Amino acid sequence: MRSKLLGVMALSLLVVGCSSNSKKELPPADLPDFEEEVGLKKEWSRGIGSGQGDLYNLLVPAIDGDRIFAADSDGDVVAMDRFTGKVLWKKELDKPVSGGVGAGEGLVLVGTLRGDVIALDAASGERRWKKRLKSEVLSAPVTNGRTVVVQTQDDNLVALDATTGEQRWIYENSLPVLTLRGTSDPVITRNLVIAGLASGKVVALDVDRGLPLWEQRVAIPQGRSELERVVDIDGNLVVSGSTLYVVSYQGRVAALDLRTGQIRWQREASSYSGLGEDLGSIFVSQANGTVEAIDDRTATALWSQDALARRQLSAPTPFSTYLAVGDFEGYLHLISQVDGRFVGRTKIDGDGLRVRALVKGDWLYAFGNGGELVALTLR
After folding, report:
1. Which domain holds residue 61?
2. Which residues are listed as membrane-spanning (predicted)?
């Protein structure tokens, strides 16, 4: 546990500095000037308690139907009408939430620093069940209706019965000496659970029994120091059709066959926040602040936007024909998917915008570090 904490402390500097080779760390780039082409209309906004809190939490809201669910680090879980922002219910858990939010099949799911997985009724907010695990939960629990799967801080995958919370199976992994704080959210289907690991590997398991179906290494640790050898997969995994897209820190971005795990293509990349996919293009927020578009057929770069260098970007979210990307000052940037030019910008939260935005139809939702949840449309 001590090595994990030391790794977090050291790597917090590494992430902020984005692995600069110079002894003097360069400051974040100034905001670029541009001619605004697209405006964003704020439909509603609501404060969600303490937001991400003082730790490096990644509490992404979840949308299920016409409702949006959000949680803060103090344990308040809120259900809202996603069109009006009206609060439908609020549940005070009185526990420090560090993983969430997962939603689907009538459940709202969060994890805590103490290792609790808590399932709430999506309609009423009443607690269905609680299960204590052996390690803190830093990712959102996911469910397919039968099973809830959780990835814990020690990189183990735990499957729970969606009705009772009883443990079905556990898939154990060895944690590297140093890791980034956080884990990517697992992806669950009717038959599969797919997870990115701190070792730079992706694993697919049978959802009912926890048996490994395939394993693929995306990043190979390199370098002499433990810091140089960190290759965590902490960004969001994206599934499109029969392809899984994944990116690691200090490693690669890759397209994998969802059934077999075979690599369809790969190229060098370094990201701790994740990626997006739309209309045959893959978009990556690199650790150094560059946003890159990659052609899914040829694996070649279509464009690269480096004007947000060292601004600690969120994962890029496709929105209409644009990308929505947040930064450490709380700005939400709109970038053209076609050529990477800036087309719009708005301030969301003065404490920063760390987690990826969510899109449902013509609506975009951004959740700031300080707890400001904003619903936006194009105007």
Report:
1. 48-172
2. none
Residue 74 lies in a domain: yes
Find residue 143's DSSP bridge partners: 148
Residue 158 lies in a domain: yes
CA distance 262 to 255: 9
Residues 6+ apart with CB under 8 A from 90: 76, 77, 78, 79, 125
CATH number for the domain spanning 112: value is 2.40.128.630
Q: Is 150 within 8 Å of 139 (Cβ atoms)?
A: yes
In a domain, 313, yes or no: no
Say what the pTM is. Answer: 0.92
Q: 3-class DSSP state for residue 9?
A: helix
Structural domain count of the chain: 1
Average pLDDT of adjacent 10-residue blocks, the chain of 379 residues: 37 41 79 96 97 94 98 97 98 95 97 96 97 94 97 94 97 83 89 94 97 95 87 93 96 96 96 95 97 96 98 98 98 98 97 97 98 97
